[in-house]
Amino acid sequence: xxxxxxxxxxxxxxxxxxxxFLAPACAMFLIYxxxxxxxxxxxxxxDWDGVGARTFVxxxxxxELLHSDTFYTALQNNVIWLVLLLLAPPIGLLxxxxxxxxxxxxxxxxxxxxxxxxxxxxxxxxxFSWFYDPSFGLLKVLIGHGVPVLGDEHMxxxxxxxxxxxxxxxxxxxLFLTSLTGINPEVIEAGRLEGARGWTLLWxxxxxxxxxxxxxxxxxxxxxxxxxxxxxxVMTGGGPFDSSTVLAxxxxxxxxxxxxxxxxxxxxxxxxxxxLIFIVYQxxxxxxxxx
Amino acid sequence: xxxxxxxxxxxxxRALYKISLPIALIIWLLPLLAVLLTSIRxxxxxxxxxxxxxxxxxxxxxxxxxxxxxxxxxxxxWNSCLITFPSVFGAIVLSAMAxxxxxxxxxxxxxxxxxxxxxxxFVPIQILMIPVRDLTLKLGLFNTVGGLILFHLxxxxxxxxxxxxxxxxxxxxxxxxxxxxxxxxxxxxxxKIVLPLIRPALAALAVLVFTFVWNDYFWALCLTQGxxxxxxxxxxxxxxxxxxxxWNLVSAGSLLAALPSVAIFFAxxxxxxxxxxxxxxxx
Lengths: 291, 283
Fold this sequence. Notes:
Distance between the termini of chain B: 21 Å
Strand content of chain B: under 5%
Number of domains of chain A: 1
Oligomer: heterodimer
Strand order of the largest sheet of chain A: 1-2
CATH architecture of the largest domain in chain B: Orthogonal Bundle
Largest interface: A-B, 105 and 102 residues
Structural class of chain B: mainly alpha
CATH superfamily of the largest domain in chain B: MetI-like
Strand content of chain A: under 5%
Number of strands of chain A: 2
CATH architecture of chain A: Orthogonal Bundle
Order of helices and strands of chain A: HHEEHHHHHHHHHHHHH
């Protein structure tokens, strides 16, 4: 069957056009995304300053990583980021439920709630650095005395995560708002007739219908948490004493500041392996829903 | 509808709800409002420590003028435009063609190609950093807008292809068949039949990709050095160092930098949300 199809000139013409349509996108994606992944993995076994020759060092970069305190700080901070940023989906859901009403001006209210998401991380970072400033920041005015949030080893990461939540919550909110409007009203009515209301209705009837949105919110929050870079770079630069660094920032620092490209690639590979779990999970779901 | 519409609430609760909205909004936007307020204060006032009182003299005009004239903000903004528009255009052209191919031609391995595009987009961008930087250096594109454009358009193509492929798949296939019977070439099929039908999807993607690229900071740091090709995000971060004590100027600069993507969002809200929530409503 397939042999006879590929023999016909029409099918051949179509296959050729399919190839031509695909070629530019595939070529660019291969060069700038796929090839670099493998290139980084290979590089992680080398010692390289970015200019001179590369020397193969086997697993030395990874061994060094396992003995580096900063690596564990970064890893621990990545876990803190992951756990705390996952507050965004439930808070976003609450916000969506709060705003899912038809009153005058609600559209502009929703948009304004959402607006932090479209502001660049750099600006958000500046806004919050200023918010936390111990001598005049808004936080000082609110709680009465200045707290050097970003200058304190124990609070810097938390301070940055609050800023990240301010961006991530509205994103989750908009996902939930969109799917709330897409819910079949009859199902809700049926639930109400059965006597379900409030939390019971939310838990047993509404939430199951929001599953795609929940899934998206969680996946993208996880990815966002692991990718976090802009805010850290602007707000603390990983400090004080590397206390607020994460793998993404640690990696950048090692490459750009210390020109340790092989070592830096090894950090990136570790981050990649952590994220691979989520990538595989997401892909399986995508392919399953396709069939 | 869930929760119960306010229309069927007790009048007192309904009133309470309506009052709570602006209050909640002000609390939510407080960090931003504070910055807005600071950006219109004069330096003298900040020196005297009047951060939170009512501004005595409005210096909005001077502050914004200083930022626009006495700092290279406009130069950075221009760089941002030079980087963002071609990237958005390029990503959309490439992904429209690829999405069309993946949606209309059944061939072995099309699922694998799609999966590669998606997977590539979820990768931590840090793993791409060193090779992409290296490649950009070798191409002689380091510290040029061209280097950033090539990367951005390639990277964004992944997500855009998935989006457009799914959108095209939803179109009635008979249209394509009918056009083929009429004798249309494959290119005409794409250009004359499919492209006009996917215009809303293209608009949604354009807005979304615009904000992603416009707000990018990581790649701007990796692929530029100095002022030549640096976009607005790098410029704003530099403002902090340049005017360490003049928070009114830093605030004004930050707000100016945020303005374009916020404006585009408000102007094309519907498209933006369609693009962003794609995948959240079905599947």
